[in-house]
C-alpha cells in the first residue's frame, strides 16, 4: 500500500477518451473491485514546447503552446463527460499537470513528486509499430522503463 492510511493508490494516465477509454474503464473496474480503501487519480498531462533560445522559433513555440493548452481544455472536458458514468459508483479525482517536455517525463516527474509510493499506473497505448513507433516513441514503454511502480498497459480496441 502506498501511504500510512493504507490506501491503494492508482493513477490512470490519459491523453484522450479515444485512446484512453479502455484504460479508464479498466482503472474504474479495478477500483470498484478492490476490497480495501483506494485512491483513484485520473491524470492528464499537457506537454508544452520548451523555449529554443531563438527569437522566431520561440514565438512559434509560444503560439503552439497556446494551441496545445486550448486543445487540452477540450480534452479534459471530454474526459470529464466520459467519466461521469462512474459518478456514485467509484470515487476518483481528475488532475491535470502542465509542464514543458515530453508526456512521459512530465508524468514521471509529477508521480515522483506527488505519489512516490504509487501502487499502480494504468495507461493506454496506441500500439504503434515500426517507423511510426520509432518516430513518435511510446509513452507506455517509457513508463515501464522509468517508473518504479507496476504499470498496466491497456491496448486500444481493434
From TrEMBL:
Residues 9-155 form the UspA domain. CDD domains: USP_At3g01520-like. Pfam families: Usp. SUPFAM superfamilies: Adenine nucleotide alpha hydrolases-like. PANTHER family: STRESS RESPONSE PROTEIN NHAX, UNIVERSAL STRESS PROTEIN UP12. Belongs to the universal stress protein A family. This is UspA domain-containing protein. It comes from Thamnocephalis sphaerospora.
